[in-house]
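Recall the central idea of this unit: under ordinary conditions, the amino acid sequence of a chain determines the structure it adopts. In this exercise we apply that idea directly, starting from the sequence alone.
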Amino acid sequence: MAETDVPSSRPPMSGTPGRPLPEADRPSPAHVGVPDTRGPVRFLWWLVRAQPRRVALGSFWGIAWMTGVLVPPYLLSRAVDEGLRAGDRDALLGWTGTFAGVLALTALASIMRHRTMTMVRAHASLHCTRTLARHAVRAGTPLARGSSSGDLSVVQSADVGRIGQILTLFGPGVGSVLGCVAVVVVLWGFAPVLALVVVLGLPVTALVLAPLLRRMHTRQNTYRDREGEVTTLAADIVSGLRVLCGIGGKERFARRYRERSGELVRDGYRLGSVTSWFEEVSQCAPLVFTAVVTWIAARLAVAGELTAGETVAVYGYVAALIVPVAFLVEAATDFSRGHVSLLRLLALLRVEPERHGGGEAPPPTGPGDLADPESGARVATGALTVLVATDPAAAALVADRLGGRVGSAVTWGGTALREVDPAVVRARILVSDNDAHLFAGTLREVVDVRGERSGVEVDLALRTAAAADVAEALPEGLDARVESQGRDLSGGQRQRIRLARAVLADPEVLILVEPTSAVDAHTEAAIAERLRTERRGGTTLVVTASPLVADRADRVLFLVGGRVAAEGTHAELVAERADYRALVLRGADEGGERTPQRPGTGTGGPGGGHAAGAVETAPHRERPAETAGRDIGQDEPGGTPTAGNAETAQSEWRTPQRPGTGTGGPGGRDGAAAAAGAGRGGRPPAGEHRRGGPGTVPGGDLPPGDRTAGGAGTGGQDGRGDGRRGDGAGTEERGGR
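Accordingly, the structure predicted from this sequence is:
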């Protein structure tokens, strides 16, 4: 988050000194430059202008190197005519020494040319990468919707290198063009007919190669498309491997990947076939030149029109002409490959952020209400607001509009949000959803992305998100490495880490989209209470249908058909609206619904009681689809439980029973273990006490330390069982009271 001088009525995170956050890094336009995306050639010229001195130096060394390639034939002709034929030993030694010196200088020029052009290509590739990264940050959601991760990966890993390779044209390419011109001029001095053969032969070679070059370009385009698709599929499989294993789709996706990669191999063979023909023809064409010109020069020498030394020089010049022609053919090949990559990069750079205003309006000088006229939603300053919607997609769209992710008529403190500088909006309004990227690094770096928060603040954010057990379960705690997107964490752990990161950012306005969809009721209740405490005085909007979170909100907005149909407290809406009651209290008995109580005040749920200070949700609802596949330790929202890892706590989602009479399953939760075998159930975490019933599914393997001791509850019945935690600790648990 970025620093802001706007005063806030909310105190800083409890237990830590208040201080502003640093301003986001924004490189100046003069330093970065604006890429010219009007076409491939213009973009290439923009890359050249980004490093003019280095490109000019590369051109100089390219010309010097080509000059060194073309001078030796002249030196050989002088050595033959003035040394060998004249019998002058000194002249022969002089021209030979000069020849050796030119070769040494040519080798030096070749080294410097290659070194300089390598730097030019590397700089161009890096410039493309940085430009795309900056544009991705600026474009945001539209770029994410319009491109896949595979496309971005291929552009960053392969396309930028091909684009940089095109800049070879400005080094040896320039020298090659001048070299061809120089050979034509020199041959014209020996015999005009030789120069005409070269002048006519170059266009003929281009005409022969053109059809092959076009076909190669077409197949390169097809291959590049397929490459992006396969890369995207591979990335999806890797990121969702645990879910695929859970739902039994691993083999199906593996078969699909094999089919797509097989198609890519076949496209590669087709491309290789055309490329091989192109390279062979391009290498044979200069040899035909050499043969024709040498034959003509020999006839002229027999006729006495050329001396022996001149004949040697003509052969040398034509043989040397192979080098610049080969470089020009190679440059054409590089441009064909790079042109496809250029089109891909330009397509991404042309994606514009969905902003319809000028970004010049001043932001509110202090905290202000967010209002969305399209839905009628208003987020009050300094309050905890919950948005409950019959359509989750509509609620997510409202969150995007309120966060400035999409263009809309949302106002912020009376100012049109779309007219405010996007950097200011991002600095003061944070939208966090379950698609937010988790970067690789230590757990501390993942949570504190700027590395400017103290350990106390990080610990407090983790506690607020009920994620302290994640750090405790890792061998190195906060210093443990976390893979990109948290692939080595469970779904619930990733969700809580994202929430901790958002809480630690401490923005003026925090918008959370389904922050507790992958956690159990106990954890959800703890998060709701702690979030309310830590965000006291701040503006917070939570998009969720959880009654545990809604009960702690200052205001609840009920969205029906994309419009706010009612608002009030959770208790008021439960009492007044049957549709709201049916949504948030799914599976409840219409005649005996009870409003969820504050911690420590609830009565016993089915098969168990409450611990002091926690809640077992009284209006037990049918398990929603988004949590139906919550796995123990692998709780991906929407997944299907795997054998041995399913949470089967029947009491949490069944119809309410009389306290102490419900038949509970193994007490499981995100990060807690399920009971194994025929015991009466594992001990639930703190306060989430349920009566143990016959265990039906073995417990899952969980990281050690991800458990808390249970407290005394009310209304539960003692049950002693032999359930074991899934962390391998072998600790015998007892049913909660």
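Residues 1-12, 14-32, 587-737 have pLDDT under 50 and may be disordered.
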